[in-house]
From TrEMBL:
Domain (DUF2207) ranges: 29-242
Protein name: DUF2207 domain-containing protein
Pfam families tied to this protein: DUF2207 (PF09972), DUF2207_C (PF20990)
Alphabetical keyword list: Membrane, Signal, Transmembrane, Transmembrane helix
Lineage of the species this protein comes from: Bacteria, Bacillati, Mycoplasmatota, Mycoplasmatota incertae sedis, Candidatus Fimihabitans
Origin superkingdom: Bacteria
Native organism: Candidatus Fimihabitans intestinipullorum
Claim: Signal is one of the keywords in the record: yes
Domain Predicted membrane protein YciQ-like C-terminal, chain residue ranges per copy: 320-551
UniProt-listed InterPro entries: DUF2207 (IPR018702), YciQ-like_C (IPR048389)
Amino acid sequence: MRQKITILILFLVVLLLPSQVSASSDVYIKDYYVDATVESSGDIYVKELFLLTGDYNGYERIINYRNVNAKAFDGTKDSFEGSDIYNGTDIELLSIRNVEVPTNYSFDLIRQEGELFQESQMASSGMRGVYQVETTGNGYRYRIYNPSNGGTNGFMIEYRLKDMAILHSDIAEIGWNLFTDEQADDIEHFLMKIHLPENKNELRAWAHGPLNGNISLDGKNLITVEIDDLRAGTPMDVRFAFDKDQAAYATKTTGEEALPMILEVEEARADQANQERMKARVLYYGTIGISIAWLVGLIFIIIYIYYKYDREYQSTFPGKYFRDFPSDDTPATVGYLFNKKIRPDDLSACIMNLIEKKVLKFEENPEKKNDYILTYIETNGTVELSPSELQIVSWLFDKTPGNTMTLSQMKKDAKKDYEGFYQEYTLWKTCCESEAKAKNFFEKKGKWPTFAAVYAFIGFLIGVLTANFAEILWLPMIVFITAFAAMIYFLTFTRRTKEGNELYAKWKGLRNFLNDFGKFETKDLPQIALWGKYLVYAMTFGCADKLMKTMQIKVQDLGPEYVEMTPYYNYHYMNSMLIFNRTMNRSVNSAVNTAISTRTAAMSSDSSGGGFGGGFSSGGGSFGGGGGGGHF
C-alpha cells in the first residue's frame, strides 16, 4: 500500500514525457514533390514524384483537368470563386517512371530520369514496370504497378495539363486543383514549385486547403507551396495571377478586368482563414493547457486521497512472524480481511477447518483411485459452528445418503447441476461476506473518492476535446490512460480500520511464518498438533502446497515415535492428510470453476457474423483539375 502513491505518480510523470506516435496507416507518402512550369501556350508542364512507403502492389493516381459540375463563367465576382473558365481541356501523359530512393535526398530527386514504365492492358497485382490508363468524367486514372514489401518506391509521373491559363484584360491567371477528396493516402511532406520563366512584373499567388500550409514567392518567376502532414481526403488548390506575356498564346480569354475581383475574393477567404486560424490556435493551446492542468490536478488529488483515505494505519505489531492464531475467525473471514472478497481457496480452507474441528472426517475411497470420502460427524451442538460453516454442511450432506460425499461426486454435481451448485456456492459466499463485514475490517470511503472519480471521468471528456482540436495524439492518449487508471483506483481502493489493520498485521505475520516454515529448526517449531490448523489457513494464504512439502520433510525428521505421542496425529495420518489436502483443494477449485464457467456459457448469446504569399486559406477544390489517388 505504501508503494501505491509512488507508482501512480511515476506512471503520470512517464506518460507526460513527449513520445512519437506512429503513422495512422502502414502505407503513406513520405514526400510528394511537384515541379510545374507555365508554358506560353497556357499549358502547365508537370513532373510529380511521390515516395510511397509501406507494403503495397502499386499506386493509383487520379488526375483531373476539369470539374464537370462547375458553373458557367459569367464575369461576376462569384465566377472568380470557381467556374468552368478554370477547366483545362485534356491531359497529355508523357511518361511514368520508377525512381530509386537513396538514403539522403532532396527535391532535386525529381530531376532523375528513372526507369520507364510501359502501358499495358493486361496488368495485374504482383506485376512491375507497367501501368494502365482509364478515362474518368473529369480526367484520367493511372494505375501503376510497382510493388513493395515495406520499403519506399519513387513514383514519377510526367504530364501536361492543356489550356489551363486564362487571359483577362489586365492579367493572366491559373486556378489549379492539386487534390480533391479522392486522395486516399496521407502525405507526410508536400513541396511544389511553380516556374514562370518569362514573367517580369505581376505575380500574386494564393493557396487553399489545410491551414498549416504555406505559399511563398521567390521574385517574379517562382512560387513555392509547402505542407506538412497533408491528411488523406483534404482538398488543396492554388491560384496565381501573372503577366499576360507568360501565356501569350493561351486560347481562353474573358475580356474582364480580373485582378480587383480576384483580390476581393481572396481577401475575404484570407479573413475567414485568419479567423479560423485564430480559433484553431485558441482551441489548440486551450485544450493543451486544460489537459496539463487536469493532469497536475489529478496528481494532487491522488496524493490527497492516498494520505487521507488509502494509506493504512500504523500497526503496533512490530515483528515479522506471528506463530499463534490472532483470532478465531474462519479462513473465509481471514481471506476477506486480506482480499476484501471470498475465493474458492477459502471454501477449501473452510472444509479443512471443519475436519480440524472434527465435524468432518476424510478417508480414501476404496472404489476409486485418487478420490476421498467426506463424512459428516454429528456433534449434537458440542462444536460451535458459524452460519457459513453450517451452510457448508447443509450444502454437502443434506441431499446425500449416509452423511457422506466423495470429492469426485462434488465435481460431477458442479457440472451436471451447475445452477444448483452455483446457487449453493453463492449462498455460502454471502454468509461469509456478512460475517466478515460484521467485523468492520474496512472503513467507509466518504464523499471525496466519489468526487475524485467524477474528476477522472472529466478527464475522458478533456481527452476527446484535445484529440479533436489539438491534433496531437500523445497528449490525449496520456489523458485517456491516466483517467482510466485513476478512475479504477478511486473506485476500488480500500483502507482497513485501525482494529482491522492491527489484526491484519498479525495474520500477515502468521502468513510470513508459514511461508518460511522450512527455515526454522524442527525443534523450534510449535507442537505438531497445531500443524493441521496451520495447513487450513495456508490454503487461504495461497502457500498450502509449499507448506505441505515442508511439513512432510519435518514429519520425517520428527520420526513416527514422536508424532504418535500426540492424541490425534500419527505419522501415516499426517501424510494422508497432506495428500488429501492437495487433492481436496484441487477438487473444490475445479468444481467451483466448472459450475461458474458452465453457467456463464449457458447464459451467453449465440455468436453472429493578398496574393504575396503566406498561409493557406481554408477550403480547396474551387477550380478545375484536382484528383488524388491511393495505394492498392
